[in-house]
Amino acid sequence: MTLLEALDLPAGRGCTALVGGGGKTSLMYRLGAEVAGAGGRAVLTTTTAIRPPEGLPLLTGAAGLERALEPGSAVCLGRPGADGKLHHPGQAALAAALALADRVVAEADGAKGLPAKAPSAFEPVIPLGTDSVVAVAGLDAVGRRLDTVCFRSGLACHLLGVPPDAALMPALLARLLTSPAGQRKGVPPGAAFRVLLNKADGPERLRAGEETAARVRALLPGCRVVVAALRQEDPVREIFG
Q1: What DSSP string describes 87-137?
Q2: How does strand 224-228 pair with strand 192-198?
Q3: How many whole angstroms separate alpha carbon 107 and alpha carbon 167?
Q4: Domain that holds residue 72
Q5: Span 106-164, pLDDT tens digits
Q6: What gap in Å lies between CA 139 and CA 84, rounded to an integer?
Q7: Is residue 95 part of a domain?
Q8: Is the residue at 103 inside a domain?
Q9: How far is it, in rounded angstroms, from Cα 214 to Cα 11?
Q10: 139, part of any domain
Q11: In the chain, how many domains are there?
Q12: Which CATH number fits the domain that encloses residue 221?
């Protein structure tokens, strides 16, 4: 099963925004490859900052986008910054991508490489035209100290009402993922909300994923949760909902 199918993303043109930590970039590239592999046109971009892609055409604006988007293609869209990363390509370029691509996938916040995060006041930056939001978390965070696995851990402690040395167990991770002040922050009205729990690379993490998924669905009935290992050839492990 593909990730597009597992996440049950909306059909037709639109944008899927990725938030959280623990695998957003990997998920973005996997979704782009699946769209292209099905003969579609995918644009991968960011409203924050990402590392430049390897093996994908890079466009810095709307110019040339239509020519680059052949059937069965994926391109990356972003403005190079002085930090060596790609940044928000601008509203005009995003509008062009939405008009031309079968699916736009955008990283909408950053996590400094950590498996979990709490959004600040200015995060996430959800693009116009977003019809689906996927909150991502790495299961390698489960059972470890919150202040070592969560970006903006002070905000997470305040949100969850726990000290910095609290263990991030499935119940707390589920609250962080589903809270309107957590990873559900800024989801546009009517947009689909999904959760992807990444790094289910062994039995212990798979069990942690199953428990976290159950907690998510108890807090947010009907929410679709996918437990996955994005670095594996067949990444989908389990689907809830």
Answers
A1: E---HHHHHHHHHH-SEEEEE----TT-SEE---TT---PPTTEEEEEEEE
A2: parallel
A3: 27
A4: 12-240
A5: 999 999 999 999 999 999 999 999 999 999 999 999 999 999 999 999 999 999 999 99
A6: 29
A7: yes
A8: yes
A9: 26
A10: yes
A11: 1
A12: 3.40.50
